[in-house]
Design a protein that fits this description.
The protein has 393 residues and is α+β, with helices and mostly antiparallel strands. It is 48% helix and 19% strand. The longest helix is centred in the last third of the chain and has 29 residues, at 255-283.
Length: 393
Amino acid sequence: MSWRDRLQNASWRGVTFFVESHGATGGHRLHKHQFAQRAGQYAEEIGQQAEGYKVDAFVLGADYDKQRDRLLKELRRGGMGELVHPYLGALRCKCEAWTVSESGEQGGVAKFSLTFVQSDEQIYPTIGVAPGSSVEEAAGKLKTSVFDRFLKVFKVAGTPGYVAAAAADRLTDVAAAIEDATPFYFGESEAVANLSVALSTLKNNAVALVTGPASAATAMQNALGLLTAAASTDRAFFALFGFGDDLDPVPTTTPARRQEGVNQAVIRDLVQSTAIAEAASQATSIDFVSYTEAVEHRGLLQAAIDVRMEATEDDTEYQALQALRVGLTLAVPIDDDLPRLKAFTPVTTAPVLLISQQLYGNVGMAADIVARNGIRHPGFVAGGTAIQVLTNE
């Protein structure tokens, strides 16, 4: 097969024509660096130039005018198109310029001078939402929804004194639960001090706070927010997911008792949902050691969300919980390349240093193996018993 046999029928967007001659241009984009007191220069290559194609074409025949008009229509239309070049094959191009000429001496033929430039599809920067920000947004909406509901249904004004006293006791319970949420505080000393002040306010001013629903709700959510920095772990909130579930139900024998029950329930709901919101927000910034650990942590948060979604009768809170659940799926873990956990069974009893060397080529993971498996004697890891180790496989 000769080169003539390999030529393709020329066309632009499916409209065929003949080619008399052609040319192509290309090259490299260079940025020229010139330096003081130096005669030469450094040409930095910053990519290829877009290739260009010059085609001298023509259409002819008894219906050349119809073919000419079809070609002109496609040339005028602009935009991306496919140029089938007889020598270079199919090319994605845009037509930069064209001319057409006809003469009476040469009837039945229209000559074109076509200039094409290579062009890719235009790619715009995409705007996306950072997974962590969607969690923050949903958590904020959740806290706002339970706050607003608290303002609507919590009430002590115009009720017997025991209703206000019971509500004050519940605020004291909230302070105690936050205090007991974690045995140790690892945050900055200032954060721990701020939390201590907030808890003292809840306990010592509970009677005054319940007279203003906004003050009571703000005091509780403020204390829960301060727990984040003071505890430096979202595990502290896990103990609050079930706050108030063990309280005795209030008899509904009178309107006052019914209001007392409503107050108790809305305090419980505010604490539980706010704790979930704070824990979810903090989870997006945790440096998980393994993918398995991150997924398990996310599962615990989503289980708590599911319980609240089933319990709430407020549509706004339900929607915020649903959005938070979806946000956690996208944001935790933020890195899909985290190491996975796998089971490893030593053949014989061996020191953890030797196991680390065998698995990772160094002893640097020995401490992780000990901590992850609660090994009491690192020098004697029992053979035949599976342990959990990290792997990038």
